[in-house]
Amino acid sequence: MDRVRPKKQLGQHFLTDVRLAEKVALSLTGWGDYPNLLEIGPGTGQLTQHLLKLPYRLWLAEVDQESIQYLLEHQLAQPEQMVGDFLRWNPLPCPGDTGDTGDTGPAVTLDSEQDPGKNKACWGVVGNFPYHISTEIVFKVLEHHAVVGECVGMFQREVAQRICSVHGNKVYGITSVLTQAFFETQYLFTVNEGSFFPPPKVKSGVLRLKNRWNPPACDHRLLFRVVKAAFNQRRKMLSNALGQVLPEGYQDRMNILHLRAEQLPVQAFVELTQAIEEALFDQKAST
After folding, report:
1. Of the residues 192, 211, 230, which one is the last residue of a structural domain?
2. Range of the domain at 174
3. pLDDT for 173-215, tens place per residue?
4. Most exposed: 35, 183, 236, 281, by fewest CB within 10 Å?
5. pTM for this one?
6. Do 103 and 81 meet the contact criterion of CB atoms below 8 Å apart?
7. CATH number of the domain to which 170 belongs
């Protein structure tokens, strides 16, 4: 097979700029000493060929059969390196510990206490992410934050900027708060449309996420509920937006419920979740 047809339904825009592909690969720092690296959407292997030069055990998440055949025929991958759909990825047990490929085994949940070791991870994640599922990819990384040390990804520029934005910014939102609660975010560089085939209609941005190693000291599922409820009605004060989340008779000791979601920094959302968690516990204890 000499070429792969880019498929619109899969959001494929193949990276064609060789120097850019190398720049993305070299943006990986190895944070967390992860031995395994997972590339999402390798396509025609432009990035893959540079990742193969790095000191990681490389795995590839690809659903396009033409791409898989191309990668195998051009010796950019072996069948055992393919893990299928990233959105169904299950990273435990870690390859090398069990001999598994990383796509089977028990799932890691948001409240998982599994820890690969202090400041040590099992996985790094990298890729030219399909735009239409890039946010889902981020949430999948968050789901498995306990074992992912680092993620370097190519996003639509506006999405990348949103993930890195701070409170008070009009694009600050759900993905900003939840990503920054678990990872340090850094916008690395912008990529022009001509670096892809077919060229997208928008510019791209490359991000690096580095695990904070100190996940929020609260119920993570509740944190997700609080943040999503707050921003789903971002024009309303938190007292109204969180109506379905706040326990009955909740006392606003933080004095923040008159604010809107975009006015709260990440840590304030964590502290609010802690306060709600305590109120729910007290409420349950009194019944």
Report:
1. 211
2. 8-211
3. 999 999 999 999 999 999 999 999 999 999 999 999 999 999 9
4. 281
5. 0.89
6. no
7. 3.40.50.150
**Final residue before a domain boundary, out of 159, 184, 211:** 211
CB atoms within 10 A of CB 281: 11
User: b vs e for 55-77, b when ≥16 Cβ sit within 10 Å of the residue's Cβ?
Assistant: ebebbbbbbbebbbebbeeeebb
Do 23 and 60 belong together in one domain?
yes
The two structure tokens encoding residue 68: 């898989």
Whether 241 and 124 share a structural domain: no
Lowest model confidence (mean pLDDT) among 56-60, 97-101, 145-149, 182-186:
97-101
Supply 209's token pair: 């996420």
Residue 40 included in any domain: yes
Using CA atoms, how far apart are residues 243 and 240, in angstroms rounded to an integer? 5
Do residue 123 and residue 62 come from a single domain? yes
Does 125 reside within a domain? yes
196, 15 in Cβ contact below 8 A?
yes
d(CA 121, CA 181): 17
